[in-house]
Structures are given as C-alpha cells and as structure tokens.
Design a protein that fits this description.
The complex is a heterodimer.
Chain A: E1 19-26, H1 30-41, E2 46-50, H2 56-60, H3 78-85, H4 87-94, E3 98-101, E4 104-109, E5 122-126, E6 131-141, E7 145-147, E8 160-162, H5 163-172, E9 180-184, H6 188-199, E10 203-208, H7 217-225, E11 230-231, E12 234-242, E13 245-253, E14 261-264, E15 267-270, E16 274-276, H8 279-283, E17 288-291, E18 296-299, E19 312-314, H9 323-327, H10 329-344, H11 364-380, E20 386-388, E21 393-394, H12 395-399, H13 412-415, H14 419-425, H15 430-437, H16 450-461, E22 480-481, H17 482-485, H18 492-497
Helix pairs in contact in A: 1-4, 1-10, 5-6, 11-16
Chain B: E1 13-19, H1 23-34, E2 39-42, H2 67-73, H3 77-81, E3 88-95, H4 98-103, H5 105-112, E4 118-122, H6 123-129, E5 139-148, H7 151-164, E6 168-170, E7 175-181, E8 184-190, E9 193-202, H8 208-214, E10 222-231, E11 242-244, E12 248-251, E13 257-260, E14 265-266, H9 282-293, E15 301-312, E16 319-323, E17 326-333, H10 342-355, H11 378-382, H12 390-396
Parallel strand pairs in B: 1-2, 1-9, 2-6, 3-11, 9-17
Antiparallel strand pairs in B: 3-5, 4-5, 7-8, 8-9, 10-13, 10-14, 10-15, 12-13, 16-17
Helix pairs in contact in B: 1-7, 1-10, 2-10
The chains are: A alpha/beta, B alpha/beta.
The complex binds flavin-adenine dinucleotide.
Chain lengths: 524, 397
C-alpha cells in the first residue's frame, strides 16, 4: 500500500506567487512595445517589464550589456529619460498596459519533469530590492540583442564597450560618456552608431574591419565622405591607456603588410556582431537551434512567434536578428504585434508541436564574419590577453583547456591536453570547457565572452560553429544579491520539511552498526 | 598483486567494459588500468555530464566502510592522476540552533569511531574559523578529516589519467543491451555497434537499475533531481568546506559559494534526458538558508544555479556486488554519496573485478542480497514518486 509522498521531496510544496497577469511581456524595445500596444487593443490584461534603467552595480558588471565603464548609471532622472526616449512607452501606459521599468526577469518556469512542483507558468522578477514570482497565462519574450565580444590586448580597459551598450547609453539613457571613438566593425550597426554619435557631437577616429571590404559599403562611403577612414583587413592589436581607461589604439593589417596605424580615442566600440538574447527562453526549456540567418542560437518558432513551450512566444531580435529588423524598428514591432494577437487566443492544450527544421537558414556571411573576427582575435592575442575577463582566462588557457592559475597546471600530463585532444575524445562542448577552464563562468555570466569563445573554439579546431551546442543558461539570469534573491515568503510545508540531503532513514548510521541480518529490515 | 588473468585487447571490445563514464565508472576503469587491465568505458554523453559533474564535491562520508580509504586517497589524488582535482582537506559544520548542534553528533561519533580527530566549536570559535558566519551561529564541529574537490575537474582527471594508462573512453555512445552466453555477458550492444568483453561493470548511475534488469537482476535504484546555487567569488575562508543550516557545499578555491540542499524531486523512472534536470525556483529557498548560514555574505550575488540527477537505493546505501544472474558482471551504484567516495569505490570495484573481493574494506553492507525481500512497488511504498499534477488526476479519473 502506498504511503504518502516523501515529505522531504518537492511533492506538495507550493510556490508563493505574488501576482497574476494574462499576458507578461518581457522587454520594452520595439518588439515588446509593439506587442503591448496590440495586446492593449485586444483588451488583454498586460504587464510590460523592462530591466532598464539598470542599477549601477550591474552596469559595473557589464550587465546586461558590455558598458565598459562608459555609461553613467541609474540616476534619479534615468527613468524619465527612458520614457522621453521612447514615446511608445507613454502610449502603452495610456492604453492601459501596466508598464514597469527597472524590473528584470531572472527566471522563467513551467511545470515539466524535474520541476513538476512548479504548477503554474511563472516568471521570477526583481526590481533590485526584492524578488518575487508572477504567474501568467501567456508570455512574450522580447529580450532583444547584445554584442559579440571581441578580445585583444587591452580590451579589459574601461572604454571598450559593445555597440548595443553604447547605443543604449546614447539614445535611451542620454548618459554616454565616450567622446573620441574607434569602432570595430563596418556593418549597419557600426555605421548607424557612427552617424548617431557624430550627430551627438562625438568624434569617430576610424572604423576597423577584419574583412577585406566594408560590410555596409554605402554607410562606410558616407562616413568616408566626412573624412572618417575605414580600415579593412585590419584589427586592433592593442588598446592602451591610463586611469581613465583607453587613450589610444594601435591597429594592424591582418595580412601584415602595411605599417600599423594608431588612433587616439577614449572609447572602442565593438560592433563585430549581434547576438539574440535567448537566456530566458533556454531557462524555460524552449528548444533552441543554431540558425546563422537569424544570428546564431535562436528559439525554434513558428510564424506567430510560438516557441516549443506552451504559451511562450518570442518576438524581435531575441527571435532572430535580421538586417530588416536592425534597419527598421517597425519590423520588430510588427512581430511583437503578431505574437500578441496569437497570444490573445492561445490555448496551452492545443499548442502546436513545432517540427525541428530540417535545414536552418544558411547565412555564410554571418558565419564567416564570426570566424574572421575570432581569427583576428587569435592573431593579435598576447600571452596574458584575457578572453574571459571575469575569470582571467587567456586564449592560451582556453585552447590548452588549462585549469586556473591557482591550481597546479604544469604537470606534463596536463600540458599534453588541449582543445584538439578534447575534441578527439568526443564532440566539443563549450560547457565542458567552461567547467575546466572557467571561461565564461564569472559574474558577468558570460555576456562578454560566450559567443567569442564558441567562435575561437570553432576556429582553432576547425569545428563548424553550428556543431558546438549552446552553452546552457541558468537562473538567475541576472545576478542578484543573496539577500534580495532569498525567498522571504516560503510555503510552511517547505520550511518544516527542509533537510540537507534526502533524509533517508539510517543513511548515516555507521556501517559497523549494520548487522547483515538486519539489513533488509524496514525495507518495504 | 598478481598480474590480472585477463587476455589482451581485441579489435572491437576490451577485457573489461565499464558502462557509464561518471565518477564511479571512471575511477573503477582507472584503477583497473593501473592494475594492467585493458579497459573500455562507454558513456552515452560526455564524461561526468550527469551527477558526477554537478554535485557538491563533498568528501566526508563517515558512515561508509569506504570512508577510511576515501580519506587516505584524496590527498594523493592529484599526484596519482597527474591532473588537478582541486581537492581541499577538512570540514567545518556550523549550527544555528540547538537542534542543529545535536544533529552534528552522528557525524562526530562516526568519525571519532574511526579514529579521526574532531573538535567541538563554540560560537566564538566558529566565527574565528568561518569569517562569513555571524552572531546567529551557536556552535559547530571541526573535522580534521573530510574535504571537498571540484566535480567536473575530478571526473576529467580520472578520464585523462585512464587514457594516459592506455584505457579507452567512448563518449556519445549509449549502451542498449547485452549479449549473453549461459550466465556470462559476452558483448555490449551500443548505438555504435557491439563490443565484446570478458568482464562487465555497470555503473550507470540512475540507469543502473534498467541496465541490470536486462541482465536478469534489477538493482533497485530510482532517480531524483537536486539543485545547487553559486555566488560570485568572495575572499577565501581558511577552510572552504563549511556547511550547516541544512545546506551542503563548499567555497571553491576561486572563492564562489556553491551550496545546495532542501527538497529533491523524484523523477519518472527510465528517463535521464536533458529535460529532466532543470534548476527550479528552489534556488531562492537555498539562497535564504545560505544568507542565514553566512550573514556576512548577504550582499553577495547569486550568479547561477544547476541541477543533477541522483541515483538512490531504498536504504540510501551503495550497491557494489556481482550480479547473481551474470557471473562476469559487477554492478555499482553509490546512492547519492558517490563523488567523495570515488577514489575508494573505484578501487573496490577494480578489486572485485580482478580478485573477486575488496581487500581493504568490508563491503558486506553493499550487497545486493539485502534487497531480497523488496516489494516490487517499493517506490510507491516509500513515497518516492514525482509530484502529482492535475493532469495525473485527470488521467486517473
Ligand atoms: C546536486 C548534487 C549534489 C551532490 N552532492 C554530493 C556531494 O557533495 N558528495 C558526494 O559524494 N556526492 C554528491 N552527490 C551525488 C554524486 O554526484 C553521485 O552519487 C555520483 O556522481 C554518482 O556517480 P556515478 O558515476 O555512480 O553515476 P553518474 O554520475 O550518474 O554516472 C553514470 C553515467 O552513466 C551514463 N549512462 C547511463 N546510462 C547509460 C547507457 N545506457 N549507456 C552508456 N552510458 C550510460 C550516464 O550518462 C552517466 O554519465 C550530489 C549529486 C547532485 C546531483
């Protein structure tokens, strides 16, 4: 006869959920706002959250973007600035959307094997002071993009930042503190940001592009007409500076022929590639595929933005970065609206099962671009150049799968191991290499280095980028202090039955007290 | 030791095939290779990808007959393997109230009973030894034995050391079944074809039950998921192996606090897929207790969590035994304490394979025969079943 479920297990434990909403939209960029406005039109009770303005402590950790110390943080007026910067925020608010700024989603959970004790679809939220759960009928993930990191000697100096961070600092926060810029990259992100920053009164010293021809030829020509050089087939060999960070960069031709060029600058903007922000989707268990035409690892979705997890939608850049969306925010907004319409009538019981695409979009340009930059990074790397800044992992450490410096890593056996031998043992896995080298294990949660490391591993071993599985994301996808993250409201059934380990009767009885004859006693 | 009576390697197969590249299987294979055996490890994923690379790294299993050997071997492992495991000796247990203090007694008795030094600590001594502890600590115990190591690093060290001795590891290859002749296993069927063997070791964690059933004797074992959280790094405490407040864990040598504890979730039997090891909102309840254990670390940020699937026998004790239904097969499953014991469990397994018995410890409490009278529905009887959902009720109705 069955006894009651094990009290030490999750069975019967409840998750305290503070609030419920019909539709939760995460991310108030063009896609999220497009979704929110449409949901309001449909009369759906909607909460729209966005983590901006981000608190200073996180900005210092380069979260959620690689700010590189060139943005003033959450000020008293930051909230107003954000609202001024995007009139659709006020529009959404007036349309009845519950708009919450400065609120981040750090987790996304729904009932599934292994966490069946979670009985609803919930998001873990935090405003930096407090953390709580909100349940929802449907959610649209519109978490946008961040930047492909790129290492070179000195990239850990203040002043080296991602273009998404620079753009947010300039346009959304009005708090960009760079004045003299060198931009890496020559695609539409690079040229677009160059124009925006020129309009804001900054100086752009040069664009540096690893490819032999500019990617956005038209945009580069327009900059050229203003006297801004675009160095192709080139890479920053070193950024140098002082207490305030970057003061100059030295560039080299990757072919090695021409004399190196030097530019005075206080900021180096990395616009070498954009990355869809899929962390919450991965945490939620949504199927993720590598699709070069959509910018790398992206959720498997249908035309309505439905992911493989019932009632979870993706829209905008996090669902795939395309030139169309990059050029025109309306394209992302339309995607958001489409998802909102689908969400309004969605039924978890009748959720379509998404067929794995037999072919994912081919975009040799995107793949070539990443591998080319990775090769450039390898060409200029010096012995102590970190590829992972948080954990101070050098390129040599990464490729040698070397343990951190505080361990003995000089045993000859250890020296004989590297990514090539590891790849020979079985398919390369970035999470495995992370655990061994600590590359990507730090407080920035791999935001600055993750995709670069993937590209470096692919480049160094001749592995296809798509063949390296997505390194996993785990909650909390925003670092939260223990005191904030700690569950203040806990199910009493959980408190009363909390135990360090399984709580199996007699598990810690010393072996010498177990007479063999007694062994089977008490066994069901 | 006598040279092992095992014929040389063959084209496809090995004298000893080890099914499962977790910490137990790899340690066993490494010890076998040290003894000169020709070994092949077959692993369905990556070495250590399940519980073995996702655990608390604790190595203080004073209840076990393998404890003395665990303690003797760990300090030598980096040297023996040729790769760093990040092993750190010693353990401190902190109590936040009188009940927790009383509960330390079992461990103190167990370790002292085996001749290891333990000292009781008063509140002041705890705060001296554990800089992150606070005024809420009432006391604790200091164990001059025990310790902790880095799980994935250790697994990889065994794997590499095994290769250095000529052993082979086949990753991304799943064992599907076995070929038998009378009561002997002659080959292992895998997704990469058949591999012949003279001896077989099944150390497949939670899957040990299913695989052993294919050999005629089901080892009772059932899977559960447990999770841990990790913080950003902090200055190192003098002893990293500190736990208490119903949490287990360690401060890594990098300085991160990595802790777990609390409710596990029983899983449906037979699955071991990716989808079953999500980390859940329980991370917040772990954080709450960690902030209580280390009040001086309340400001530190949690940066990640993870989960792993644990193998459990009905009495929470390991099985290391020969299968009665297959004379050349040894099964081993560690029942949730397998990481720390791995140097000793692997050695024991290798001796049972090569010599028929473990020469350094009395493993009678690990025998399979103790489950002879086990009810077939033992999981339900113990209540070791997944949480019920509304859908289950609908299905039952
Ligand atoms: C969160 C957590 C914390 C823990 N803390 C501690 C601790 O502090 N100290 C401690 O000692 N223990 C701890 N444990 C328990 C410990 O991790 C396990 O007891 C131990 O890792 C078991 O090792 P194993 O090699 O026996 O099994 P596993 O690690 O489960 O390895 C079995 C292997 O077999 C493979 N396999 C399965 N089926 C097949 C097949 N058909 N074909 C091929 N391969 C197959 C699997 O892929 C797997 O790699 C913890 C576990 C978890 C999850």
């Amino acid at each position: 006869m069955a006894r009651a479920p094990d009290v030490r297990s999750t069975a019967g434990k409840r998750l305290p959920v503070r609030e419920h909403v019909a539709l939760l939209i995460i991310g108030a960029g063009p896609a999220g706002l497009g979704a929110a406005l449409e949901a309001a039109r449909q009369g759906v009770h909607t909460v729209l959250i966005d983590e901006h303005p981000v608190e200073q402590g996180l900005i210092g950790l380069d979260i959620p973007f690689h700010f590189g110390g060139r943005m003033a943080g959450r000020s008293a007026s930051a909230m107003e600035r954000l609202v001024e910067a995007d009139p659709r925020l006020a529009e959404a608010f007036e349309a009845g959307v519950d708009v919450r700024l400065g609120v981040a989603a750090w987790g996304l959970f729904s009932p599934r094997d292994g966490q069946r004790w979670v009985r609803e679809r919930v998001a873990g939220l935090s405003d930096g002071q407090d953390a709580w759960f909100m349940s929802f009928d449907a959610a649209i993930i519109a978490t946008g993009r961040r930047d492909f990191g790129l290492s070179f000697p000195g990239w850990d100096l203040p002043g080296v930042m991602g273009v998404t961070a620079a753009d947010a600092a300039l346009r959304r926060y009005d708090a960009f503190s760079g004045r003299d810029l060198v931009i890496l990259g020559s695609g539409i992100e690079a040229t677009g940001f160059a124009q925006a920053t020129l309009a804001a009164g900054c100086r752009v010293a040069a664009l540096i592009e690893a490819a032999d021809a500019p990617l956005d030829a038209e945009g580069c020509a327009a900059l050229g007409a203003r006297g801004i050089p675009v160095l192709t087939g080139a890479m920053v060999a070193r950024a140098e500076g002082g207490v305030d960070g970057v003061a100059r960069v030295r560039c080299v031709k990757l072919s090695g022929e021409a004399a190196p060029a030097e530019f005075a600058c206080d900021t180096v903007v990395l616009a070498a590639g954009a990355v869809p922000v899929v962390e919450l989707l991965d945490v939620a268990g949504a199927a993720i595929v590598f699709d070069a035409a959509r910018g790398g690892h992206v959720p498997l979705i249908d035309a309505h933005g439905r992911t493989s997890v019932p009632m979870l939608f993706a829209a905008g850049d996090c669902a795939g970065i395309t030139p169309e969306k990059t050029m025109d925010p309306e394209a992302a907004a339309a995607e958001g609206a489409r998802a909102a319409i689908a969400a309004a009538s969605a039924n978890p019981e009748a959720w379509p099962s998404l067929a794995e695409p037999t072919t994912v979009g081919a975009d040799p340009g995107m793949l070539e671009n990443r591998l080319r930059w990775a090769a450039a990074a390898m060409a200029v790397a010096e012995a102590d150049t970190p590829v992972c800044q948080c954990e101070e992992v050098s390129l040599a450490d990464l490729l040698g799968v070397r343990p951190p410096r505080y361990l003995n890593r000089d045993q000859p056996t250890m020296r004989a191991r590297n990514v090539t031998t590891l790849g020979g043992d079985g398919a390369l896995n970035q999470d495995q290499i992370k655990r061994l080298t600590r590359a990507g294990m730090g407080a920035c949660q791999g935001r600055r280095c993750r995709e670069q490391i993937g590209a470096l591993l692919a480049g160094a071993t001749g592995t296809a980028l798509a063949a390296i599985p997505l390194p996993s994301y785990r909650a909390p996808v925003r670092p939260l202090p223990l005191s904030v993250f700690a569950a203040a409201d806990e199910d009493p059934a959980l408190s009363e039955n909390w135990f360090g380990w399984f709580g199996i009767d007699g598990q810690w009885t010393p072996f010498w007290e177990l007479a063999e004859s007694k062994d089977a006693e008490g066994m069901p | 030791m006598n040279p092992p009576a095992i014929p040389p390697a063959r084209a496809k197969g090995a004298s000893v095939i080890v099914v499962g590249g977790g910490v137990t299987g790899l340690s066993a294979a490494w010890w076998l290779a040290r003894a000169g055996a020709d070994v092949l490890v077959i692993e369905k994923g990556i070495v250590g990808w399940e519980a073995s690379g996702r655990n608390g790294g604790g190595a203080t299993h004073h209840q076990s007959p393998l404890f003395a050997e665990e303690q003797r071997l760990w300090p030598q492992m980096d040297e023996l393997l040729g790769y760093p495991t990040e092993y750190q000796p010693k353990r401190v247990r902190v109590a936040l109230d009188e009940r927790q203090m009383e509960e330390l007694q079992v461990g103190v008795n167990n370790t002292r009973g085996q001749g290891f030094a333990v000292e009781w600590l008063d509140a002041r001594q705890v705060r001296e030894l554990v800089p992150l502890a606070g005024d809420n600590a009432v006391g604790g115990a200091y164990f001059a034995c025990g310790g902790h190591a880095n799980p994935q690093r250790t697994v990889q060290a065994y794997a590499w050391a095994l290769q250095d001795l000529g052993g082979r590891i086949l990753q991304h290859t799943e064992v599907l079944g076995f070929t038998r002749l009378a009561d002997k296993v002659t080959a292992v069927q895998t997704t990469a074809g058949a591999f012949a063997c003279d001896q077989l070791v099944v150390v497949a964690g939670p899957q040990t039950g299913i695989l052993s059933a294919l050999l005629g004797t089901e080892v009772p074992v059932t899977p559960a998921r447990a999770e841990m959280i990790v913080t950003e790094p902090l200055p190192l405490m003098p002893i990293g192996g500190v736990d208490g407040n119903y949490l287990y864990g360690r401060q890594t040598l990098r300085g991160n606090l990595a802790y777990g504890g609390g409710p596990h979730e029983w899983l449906p039997v037979g699955r071991g897929s990716e989808a079953t090891r999500p980390s859940s909102p329980m991370a917040r309840n772990i954080a709450k207790r960690l902030a209580e254990l280390f009040p001086k670390a309340r400001h530190v940020r949690v940066i990640r969590s993870w989960a792993g699937i644990i193998e459990n026998t009905p009495d929470g004790r390991p099985v290391i035994d020969r299968l009665p239904s297959a004379g050349n097969a040894v099964v081993a499953t560690m029942s949730s304490v397998g990481f720390g014991l791995s140097p000793a469990s692997g050695r024991a397994i290798s001796q049972i394979v090569l010599d028929g018995r473990c020469g350094f410890a009395d493993l009678s409490s690990f025998r399979l025969s103790r489950f002879g009278n086990l009810a077939p529905n033992w999981r339900e009887v113990l209540g070791w079943v997944p949480p019920e959902t509304e859908t289950d009720h609908a299905g039952a109705a």
